[in-house]
């Protein structure tokens, strides 16, 4: 039954409105302009929910007449008169509305997964486009690092991967070679939680046949959301120690080889949108004070440090006239081993995978709310390939979905970045002098 506040039957909704809903879906599938796709799906979803409400409301409204459910008796009277004038309604329109509402809602859900969560389609550099380039990727035995290595090797780059143990690294090495059909892929052990190991890395790198230069340093390794405060071998809080201080020391070690790059070199810090959760206060005072520790607070702090470091490194590259750029990026919420602490409260990645597979609901939710590594690796591969216009472009930028991303205003605080640089040198005992680095 259709009722109207003016006492007249409400006409059926025109087919033009249905056509508009379908058009929104087509707009959402458009391969251009991601914001337009996202908006289309959101509006389609809202329309679907609205039609569901109309469908149920059409059934419920007549029952409320005469029971005082509406606030004004005059409205009740007019509605009742309109219902009588309509001559009744057999409710045959309700299933159609329900079907359309459910359909549009499902379309919105699928669209949200495809475009808001998964992001742009998989990006692959052209074959042989990276020949002559040497790329070093930390933490490349799994997840984003491994996927990045496959694609960059497939594009012709000389790829060097690192892992904490020889066993993990050698297994990944064979898998990457097989997946990329490339032979110019190599492995060197690196433990970012042990600065003595990091300091020995350049010598080990230079002793290899590919070790005369480095074109791209992809700082990909990291840890996330450790429930209880843990320490690195050097006594640093583990998230800040690995995610920032370990990579800070590695950059200092590899800088002389970056200066020998073919054309411009690039340093890429894999950060996270979690850096938005950090404040200026998190980057001041005792950065790793035990009483300040929370599992997400430390992670957000380390990710903001990644961005601050990239921006300050790029500024110093420019000031020193070094042919290199530094950028940071957010890969998205990706389904990788990084979340192992959230699943099993342990660094055992195998146990986390097993626990997920045994819980179908958890697996389904995790799969829907995260993107796979093929989509997650897009932005760092895009930057490592210089697809943003060249390695001499985008210096100091922060990227998300292969485009400039939403940045925490604190990340643009140059004084804070300099302060972090100085404190990082003090904590690690490493002097990172961009202007005087020599092989």
Task: Tell me what the structure shows.
The chain is of the alpha/beta class. Helix content is 50%, strand content 8%. It has two domains: 15-117, no CATH class; 134-334 and 371-428, NAD(P)-binding Rossmann-like Domain (Rossmann fold), CATH 3.40.50. The chain has an eight-stranded mixed sheet, sandwiched between helices. Helix 6 links the parallel strand 2 (158-163) and strand 3. It starts with 14 loop residues before the first helix and ends in an 11-residue tail after the last helix. It comes from Polarella glacialis. Belongs to the short-chain dehydrogenases/reductases (SDR) family. Keywords: Oxidoreductase, Signal.
Provide the helix percentage: 40-55%
> What is the general shape?
globular
CATH superfamily of the largest domain: NAD(P)-binding Rossmann-like Domain
Largest sheet strand order: 3-2-1-4-5-6-7-8
Largest sheet composition: 8 strands, mixed
């Amino acid at each position: 039954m259709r009722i109207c506040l003016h006492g007249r039957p409400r006409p059926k909704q025109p087919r033009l409105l249905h056509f508009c809903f379908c058009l929104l879906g087509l707009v959402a599938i458009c391969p251009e302009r991601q914001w337009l796709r996202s908006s289309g799906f959101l509006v389609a979803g809202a329309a679907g929910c609205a039609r569901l409400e109309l469908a149920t409301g059409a059934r419920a409204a007549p029952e409320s007449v005469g029971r005082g459910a509406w606030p004004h008796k005059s409205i009740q009277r007019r509605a009742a008169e309109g219902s009588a004038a309509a001559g009744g309604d057999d409710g045959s329109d309700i299933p159609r509305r329900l079907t359309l509402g459910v359909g549009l809602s499902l379309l919105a859900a699928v669209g949200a997964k495809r475009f808001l969560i998964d992001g742009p389609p998989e990006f692959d550099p052209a074959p042989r486009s990276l020949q002559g380039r040497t790329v070093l990727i930390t933490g490349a035995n799994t997840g984003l690092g491994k996927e990045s290595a496959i694609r960059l090797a497939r594009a012709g780059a000389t790829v060097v991967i690192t892992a904490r143990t020889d066993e993990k690294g050698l297994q990944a090495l064979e898998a990457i070679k097989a997946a990329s059909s490339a032979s110019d892929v190599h492995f060197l052990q690196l433990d970012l939680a042990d600065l003595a190991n990091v300091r020995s890395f350049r010598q080990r790198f230079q002793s290899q046949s590919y070790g005369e230069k480095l074109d791209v340093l992809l700082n990909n390794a990291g840890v996330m959301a450790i429930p209880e405060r843990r320490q690195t071998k050097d006594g640093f809080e583990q998230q800040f120690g690995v995610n920032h201080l370990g990579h800070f020391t590695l950059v200092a070690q590899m800088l002389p080889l970056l200066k020998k790059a073919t054309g411009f070199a690039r340093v890429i810090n894999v950060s996270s949108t979690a850096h938005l959760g950090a404040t200026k206060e998190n980057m001041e005072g005792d950065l790793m004070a035990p009483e300040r520790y929370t599992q997400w607070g430390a992670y957000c702090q380390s990710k903001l440090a990644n961005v601050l470091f990239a921006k300050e490194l790029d500024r110093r590259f420019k000031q020193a006239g070094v042919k290199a750029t530094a950028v940071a990026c957010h890969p998205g919420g990706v389904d990788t081993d990084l979340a192992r602490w959230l699943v099993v409260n342990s660094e055992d990645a195998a146990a986390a995978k097993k626990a997920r597979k045994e819980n179908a609901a958890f697996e389904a939710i995790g799969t829907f709310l995260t993107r796979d590594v093929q989509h997650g690796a897009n932005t760092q591969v895009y930057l490592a390939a210089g697809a943003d216009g060249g390695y001499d472009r985008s210096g100091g930028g922060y990227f998300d979905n292969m485009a400039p991303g939403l940045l925490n205003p604190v990340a643009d605080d140059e004084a804070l970045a300099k302060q972090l640089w100085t404190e990082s040198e003090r904590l690690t005992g490493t002097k990172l002098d961009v202007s005087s680095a020599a092989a």
